[in-house]
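Exercise 3.2. Students should predict the tertiary structure of the chain below and write it as C-alpha cells, then compare their answer with the key that follows.

Predict this chain's 3D structure.
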Amino acid sequence: MQRQIIQRVLGILLAWFSFTMLPPMLVDYIFAEEAYFPFAMAFMITLVAGLLLWYPVRSYRDDLRLRDGFLIVVLFWTVLGLFGALPLWFSNSLSIGITDSIFESVSGLTTTGATVITNLDELPKSILFYRQSLQWLGGMGIIVLAVAILPMLGVGGMQLYRAETPGPVKDTKLTPRIKETAKALWYIYLSLTIACGLGYWLAGMSVFDAIGHSFSTVAIGGFSTHDESIGYFRSVPVETVSIIFMLLSGLNFGLHFITWKSQSLRHYFQDAEFKTYFFVIISITIITALFLRIGEVYLSLSDAFSKAVFHTVSIATTTGFTTSQYHFWPSFLPLLLILASFIGGCTGSTGGGMKVIRVLLLVKQGMREMLRLIHPNAKIAVKIGSKAVDGRVIEAVWGFFSAYIGVFVVMLLLLMASGLDQVTAFSAVAATLNNLGPGLGEVGSNYTSINDFSKWVLCLGMLLGRLEIFTLLVVLTPAFWRR
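Answer key:
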C-alpha cells in the first residue's frame, strides 16, 4: 500500500471539495440573507486540512494499485462526509448537533436523501442549496465509481461489465484512462442536469427550485427545498419531468455513453438490464394503481395511476421524492414499494439497491438450479442476452447477496436493540442500505426522532450501500492491511 500516494490524493480531494462551499455563499449574497459565515469557516478548515495533507507528499508520483483504489474510494465518502457536515454544524439556522450534521452530510453525499432537518421552507437559501449540491457532487462520484472503478476491482460481480465499460480495463493498476472516462461521464451527467433543470423551470418551478431539484433528481438523491417534497408544487408537468429524469438517471450511464457515441438507441433495447428495469417498474405501477383504486384511496383510476407511477418510479429508483404520504397507504402497498428499492436502479447509475443486473442474475441462477434437478447431467449456462456469464461472476453476485443479507440482519437487530419498533427498524435499514431515504413508521417523513446510536448505524448503512458492501467491508478485514 502506498501511503504517500493515498495521502496526496486525499489532500487534493479535500482541497477541491472545499470549493463546493463557495457557491452557497454566492447564493446567500444573491438573496441577502447573511448566513454565509458557516460556509466561510468550513471552507477555510477544509482547504487548510487538504493542503496540510497534500503539501508534504506533493512530489510523489506512482500508479495506484487495487488496494490503494479500495482505500481511496472508502476515504472519499467517509472523509468528505465528515468535512461536509461542518457548514451544517456551524449554522445557527439549524442548531443541530454533530451527529445530525454528519448524518445529513453522509445522506447527501451518498445520495440517500434521509433527512433529520425539518421546516425546510423557513431555512436560508444557502443551506438548502448546499444540501442539494452535496447530492449532485455525490452522484458524480457514484457514476465514476460504478462505471470506471468497480468493474476493475471486480466488486460483487461488476466484472461483468469489463467488456462493455467505456473505461480503464487493464491490469491491477488504476490507469490514466479513468480520467478520460470520468470526463465523458461528466458531460453526460451535466447535460442531464441542465436538461432536467430547464424542464422543471418550464414546468413552473422558480429558477432556484429548478436548479436544486435538478441536482437531486439526476443524482437520484431525493432532497428537496420544501418539506412537502415534489408534492409542494401540486403540478402534473413538474411530476412528469421528475419521472422522466428519475428513469433516465436510474439507467446505466455506461449505456448512455455507448448510445451517445454510436448515435443509436438500439443499445438500450438490446440490453437485458434495461428491459428488466422497465418490466419491474411497469408491473409494480399497475399493481399499486389497482389497489389504490380498489381501496378507494383515490376515487378515479387516473388519480390512482398518477400517484402510483410517480411513487413507484421514485421509490424503485431509490430517489425518494414524494407527492403524498405513501407510508400511510393501506394494505401491502408501502411494503411493496420498500421492497422495490431492494432491486434499485441499473448498474452504473446513480440509483441504489442491489441493482437490477444482480437480481436478474440471481433469478436466472435459481431457474438454472431447478432445471438441473430435472436434468442432472445437462450443462446449462446462465446468459445475459446472448452471452454466457462466467461462473466467477455468478459466485461474486451470490457473495454480494449473502453479505447484503448478513449486513441487513445485523443492522436491523442493532436498531431494534436501541428501542426502535420492527416496522421503523426494518424500513430504516432498507431505506439507508438501499440509499432510498424515506421509510415507514417513525422514519416515514424524517429521521429526527430516532436516537443517536441508530443514526450512526444508519450512516454506516448508507456508506455500505453506496460502496456496494464489499468495498467497505474489505477495508475492515485484517488481511487487507497485511503486506
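Discussion points: The longest helix spans residues 125-153. The CA atoms of residues 163 and 169 lie 8 Å apart.
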